[in-house]
Amino acid sequence: MAIVYQKPKALSDDVLHYCPGCTHGVIHKLVAEVIDELGIEGKTVGIAPVGCSVFAYNYFNCDMVEAAHGRAPAVATGLKRSMPDNVIFTYQGDGDLAAIGTAETVHSATRGENITIIFVNNAIYGMTGGQMAPTTLPNQVTQTTPYGRDVATAGYPVHVCEMLSTLDGVAYAERVSVDSVPNIRKAKAAIKKAFQNQIDKKGFSIVEILSSCPTNWGLSPVDALQWLRDNMMPYYPLGVYKDKEAEK
Amino acid sequence: MAKMTVNEGICKGCGLCVSVCPKKIIVLAKGRLNAKGYSPAEVTDQSACIGCAMCGIMCPDSAITVEK
Amino acid sequence: MSERVLVKGNEALAEAAIRAGCRHFFGYPITPQTEVAAYMARKMPKIGGTYLQAESEVAAINMVYGAAAAGVRVMTSSSSPGISLKSEGISYLAGSDLPCLIINVQRGGPGLGGIQPSQADYWQATRAPGHGDLHVLVYAPNNVQEMVNLVFQAYDKAEEYRVPAMILADGLLGQMMEPVSFPEEGEIKQHDKSWAVTGHKNQRKHNIVNSLYLKADELEQTVIERFQRYAKIEAEETMVEEYLMEDAEYAIVAFGATSRIAKAAIQQLREQGLKVGLIRPITLWPFPKQAIIDACDKVKGFLTVEMSMGQMVDDVRLAVNGRKPVEFFGHTGGIVPTPAEIVEAVKEMGGAK
């Protein structure tokens, strides 16, 4: 018998600290599989965010940097401009990328920085215990929207891929989901494309990944994925929002 | 002939593998816990495994190895 | 050293950084340091370097953090309100033991304040350049040649000790034109950069640049080890100029542009028969407290002169520790003290008038 599936080499042996059923682990694995398949671990530098995935620097075997909250795209810019032949990726959550780091996100995108952004959207602040995120759905109950997100006072969720797709500097923006095996396969293909784009010097690539937060959504891991399908996927449609190559 | 192995020490018993197995041969162990206090996933009928690896793909903790 | 050329202070900072091996500049426009950025924007593309105008000072300092993590010589420049925004990144740089060069061409504050010369960021630079237990090396030049020399010194020491370095200038020095000669690039010292995240090339375990330590004892130990490095910096890297202190009965303590005016005042005071000398801290952190302590044995008192409401005077008083009177004279908001005012302030000390 041959091994047909195992933990990727680019993931360390550290036990992930994530809650049971949290799909951060699935996304980590996809990124690591892509790094393995492209053979780029030795020249890749990843940037961990502030949020649940803050310890990503322990989980990836490539060189890693921990960034201040929201600043990962700026840190990535500094790294990439210093080492244009290395592969630089950020791994960021919704609070990090779409609230406190909005300026860094938008401007690294509009500059067309040749970096790869892995954006994990689970519609909530996980690490701090389940507060409203910029991507929290209308009427979604969180610790800080106890009566449901009222768009009249708390505003509307940010559609990151749609927003970034209006910028000329963006080479590739796709939204995927890790709610099912077929969608996980599509997510991996998108992540691989986002890394390959950087290697081919095509410019700014972002993959937004709809992810679950069983603990703060108050659901079992299996039910959380169903909630994601029923509520997040209609509001955040999957698909390619920008692909400069395909437009040519 | 295929085989699915769970690294029980890092399994968190989330049950996502159970939910995607097309052969319904994965369960969360009853009556025993791993060192972290979770009921780990286990295979009820290894001979029925088709090696599709869907359990592994779905596992957030990279706890599953599949051979075929 | 090259032949002497006439250069404006802000441009001298930029040219010196390039000659010191800096190829990466990240900034955001703010008066009165714009010449630094403009010079970099002209020069960097021609020498294969990076000039990048960021979307904010916050982004700029985090780009510095990224480039510093890659192990390259990197620089940002700003002025007071911009340094406040950079303080987040400065804390992360210090907490991750990354060397870099930060220029602060100070202007008056607080808030938007004004755009005239100021030294009112002394507290910020020496006490709280960012949150947490940390220091950055702070150099305070008082002429354009020294601005050049201290850029080289700052990079060298920042890399040797793995700390951020700051040059605290002011609008007066930034706009001043003086003849300078630049050291050649070959004079750069090389330091170990094995900690840098350059990609492990499958030849080593992965490097991590990080300032997060959730276990209290680990964080304490990390900070204690950093403070042992700070202690070595204090012991070995403190810089101070003493001017006419041998026979001085009063000491003026001043740094940067103000120290030049103090020297003019000392000439006038000596012509009037008053033996006054100058202690000029060149490093503000570490503060040259030993020079102050030593002077306590011979002078009747100290006068600190600053373009602020009196900030460095705190450090002078800490060093003097009550043994001699310490007075303050200064202007803030962009008003530059005149030699005549300083002469009067010295005369008022201890009834010397």
CATH architecture designation of the largest domain in chain C = 3-Layer(aba) Sandwich
For the record, the CATH class of the largest domain in chain C is Alpha Beta
Element string of chain B (H = helix, E = strand): EHEEHE
Instruction: Summarize the helix and strand pattern of chain C as letters.
Output: EHEHEHEHEHEHEHEEHEEHEEHEHEH
CATH T-level fold name of chain B: Alpha-Beta Plaits
Structural class of chain B: alpha+beta
CATH topology of the largest domain in chain C: Rossmann fold
Q: For this structure, what is the CATH class of chain B? A: Alpha Beta
- Which structural class matches the secondary elements of chain C? alpha/beta
Largest sheet strand order of chain C: 3-2-4-5-7-6-13
How is this structure best described in words?
- The complex is a heterotrimer of chains A (248), B (68) and C (353).
- By secondary structure, chain A is of the alpha/beta class.
- Chain A has helices at 24-38, 56-59, 72-82, 94-100, 102-110, 151-154, 160-164, 181-199, 214-217, 221-235, 244-247; strands spanning 3-5, 44-48, 63-66, 87-93, 116-121, 170-177, 204-210, 239-243.
- In chain A, strands 3-2-4-5-7-6-8 form a seven-stranded mixed sheet, sandwiched between helices.
- In chain A, strand 2, helix 2 and strand 3 form a beta-alpha-beta unit.
- Chain A starts with a strand and ends with a helix.
- Chain B has a single domain, classed as Alpha-Beta Plaits (2-Layer Sandwich), CATH 3.30.70.20.
- Chain B is built from two helices and four strands; from the N terminus they run βαββαβ.
- Chain B has helices at 16-20, 54-58; strands spanning 3-6, 26-28, 41-43, 64-67.
- Chain C is globular, with a radius of gyration of 20 Å.
- Chains in contact: A-B, A-C.
- Chain A binds chain C through residues 41-45, 47, 54, 57-58, 60-68, 71, 74-83, 86-87, 103-104, 106-107, and chain C through 24, 26, 50, 52, 54-56, 58-60, 62-72, 74, 88-89, 92, 96, 197-203, 206-212.
- Strand 3 of chain A pairs parallel with strand 9 of chain C.
